[in-house]
Amino acid sequence: MQSLEDELDTARQLAVADLADAIESIGFECTRCGACCTADDEDDHTATVFPDEVRDLQQAAATGDEEREWRDVARPMPYGLAESEDGDLEGETFEWALQTDGCGDCVFYEEDDAGRGSCVAHDDRPLICQTYPFSIALAGTSQPMGEAVSEEGIVRAHECEGLGRDISRDDAEELARALKERAIRELEEAIAVRDRYRPADPGPGEVVVHDSEGAKRMDGTPLED
């Protein structure tokens, strides 16, 4: 198995034109169905967000001069956390997920009167949102929304009703550039998390999130402060 450093080198050498060819071959057009932004029958919406993306979203969602709190934008990735006797999550986890509302949907998702979905932070949405439903098949990169339903070379496509539709070359290349950037960022993040990780031993009802910047509390502040 290749190391994360080797996979990162592979990601950096990916040709945008080749990725665009694969995307064109699979085909895609967003139908604004909202499925990628909302909870399914079993789980809340879960989309990985990098620490700098959280800060960008805090600013983008600011009201006047008032910036949103970290926890308004992101929550600890739930995988690996346990539920305490009080029903709260506790333990250690890795990375952040976009925050969800009471229905388990992304807090930035809204529907109009016709039921068409939209992202209220569209221009600042994380890379994983920009590139859905595609991913790169490299170890250390995330594979959203379950198993791939289609593949073309190193490009994987995940369940989405917009697959198979015509896509322009310009749109395919724009998506390909974002997809390459995301793969690189995910691998850089994974390496930094690995190198900075130190067991934190959180107490009852406490959550510690390990990201590329170190261990943090649920509100995004460094654990060492």
> Kindly, what is the distance between the CA atoms of the first and last residues, rounded to a whole number of angstroms?
38 Å
Mean residue pLDDT? 91
Secondary-structure-derived class: alpha+beta
Compute the CA-based radius of gyration: 18 Å
| Overall helicity | 25-40%
Order of helices and strands: HHEHHEEEEEEHEEEHEE
Which runs of at least 5 residues are low in confidence (pLDDT < 50)? none
Widest β-sheet, arrangement of strands = 3-4-11-12
* Count of distinct strands: 12
Q: What is the count of distinct domains?
A: 1
Strand content: 15-25%
Approximate shape: globular
- DSSP helix count? 6
Biggest sheet features: 4 strands, mixed
The gist of it:
This protein has 6 helices and 12 strands.
Note the main attributes of this structure.
12 strands, alpha+beta, 6 helices, globular, 225 residues, 19% strand, single chain
Provide a descriptive summary of the structure in words.
By secondary structure, the protein is of the alpha+beta class. The chain has one domain. 30% of the residues lie in helices and 19% in strands. The chain contains 6 helices and 12 strands.
